User: Fold this.
Amino acid sequence: MNKYAIIDSGSKQYTVEVGDLIQVELLDNVKDKVTFEQVLLVSDNGKTEIGAPYIKNLVVHGEVVSAEEKADKIQVFRYKSKSKYRKMRGHRQRYTSIKITAIGEDKVAPAAAPVKKVVAKKVTAKKPVVKKVAK
Assistant:
């Protein structure tokens, strides 16, 4: 069995292998390459790693085949009997075609920022203000 992964894109899950062509919901501002950082599961020759919910430091790389395509039109027909209610609508889903090029650990974890030690300032009590009482 080859290496495969399950990725999350557009609230949908896709099982991908290297060389697969997938169609995901339309991705905005996509040029040539895409990285999917939300990897749910990876299997490599029987060794399976499951994320909780995602696997850290693992990405799936792909290249865009076509930035925007449209699926076939579907007809949506609403009908209520005995009331002459009829509505006809259509819908064409837009999607992006992506070819998977690599499944690997190319995502680098961000380096932890150095921790600054905070020194508490000494607070001195202020002298109480004495008000003079007029006689």
In short: The mean pLDDT is 86. Residues 40 and 52 are 8 Å apart (CA to CA).
